[in-house]
Amino acid sequence: MVTLDAARLARLTGSDTSAVLPALQGMSVEQLEHEEFLRSVVTFLQEGDAQLAHLAAYKLREAAWHAIDISHALPALEAAALTDDRIPAHLAEFKNAWHRISTIANQAVATFHLKSGHELELRTMLAQPGWPGTCALASLQSATESQLEIYLPLLHTLLSTDEAVPSDPRLSKQPLAAMALARHHLRRQDWTKLGELISHPSEHARKGALRVLDDAAEDGQPIEPILPAILSIFERTDAASVAARIDAAYVLQWFVLRQNKRPKTLILDGVDLLKIPEIRAALAEVRRLGRKVRGDR
């Protein structure tokens, strides 16, 4: 059955995109363990139009995530991951399509190196500027403790080094480094280290750490020991702390939203959360989005 399906997919090479997309979309991760399927997906990445190349890169990233050996696809992925600087700016639609494919290809390569234990290759990517380095750092967000251990010194170095402001904020490495470290400290329940991250001098580092705590609070994880440190953020009134107060509000809003009834007061560590302006604003945004969703139905 595998051979027949693979042969059918191979015959679709060069066909109209509308004929290939359903077959490629329906391909399972397990099928990518077979060389015949992998070869066809690589062909679509190299020769397909933007739609096919995008989906092919996505499938290869999914395979890498599931620790499937995609080493034969690396040359094609690395070619697709080339910088998009060569695309003229006036070709905005083509440039954007290329950028999406390039980003997913970078993510696939980085994830493959992480899951395969290729330390040298991943470190090479991490040292690169632009999207290759950013995607490599993003791959560490899914690292296990044993996988992450060898990169901890590098993550600390990234946080302690002044980072030149990139032209694109998404290329900043400090938030991703802070996120990886925050997940590491959260798994170990090292509340002291987490507190140091959310009070870090770098706004990017604080934002990354608070984003992880936001996810943890939304998932219902017990993060009560870090609450005093989060609440202390609201004591800062300087302009540089505005973003941190908003990010902290997103974390604490989950304690309000989990109440059975909308409370008039909610005391946490001696502080009424509902008297904090940033939390009230976050809750108002949740209610606004809720009304919009109900209105769109």
Mean pLDDT: 84
How many β-strands, per DSSP? 2
Oligomerization category of the chains in this entry: single chain
Q: Total domains, how many?
A: 2
Described by the principal axes of the CA atoms, the overall outline is elongated
Q: SSE order in H/E notation?
A: HHHHHHHHHHHHHHHEEH
Which residue ranges are poorly predicted, with pLDDT under 50 across at least 5 consecutive positions? Answer: none
Task: Estimate percent helicity.
Answer: 55-70%
Strand content: under 5%
Tell me the strand order in the biggest sheet. Answer: 1-2
Class from helix and strand fractions: mainly alpha
Distance between the amino and carboxyl termini: 42 Å
Radius of gyration: 23 Å
Largest sheet: 2 strands, antiparallel
Short description:
The protein has 297 residues and is an all-alpha fold. The chain is built from 16 helices and 2 strands. A two-stranded antiparallel ribbon has the order 1-2.
Q: What's the topology here?
A:
Elements: H1 2-11, H2 17-25, H3 35-47, H4 50-65, H5 74-80, H6 92-116, H7 119-126, H8 130-139, H9 145-149, H10 152-160, H11 174-187, H12 191-198, H13 203-218, H14 227-232, H15 242-257, E1 267-268, E2 271-272, H16 277-296
Helix pairs in contact: 1-3, 2-4, 3-4, 4-6, 5-6, 6-8, 7-8, 10-11, 11-12, 11-13, 13-15, 15-16
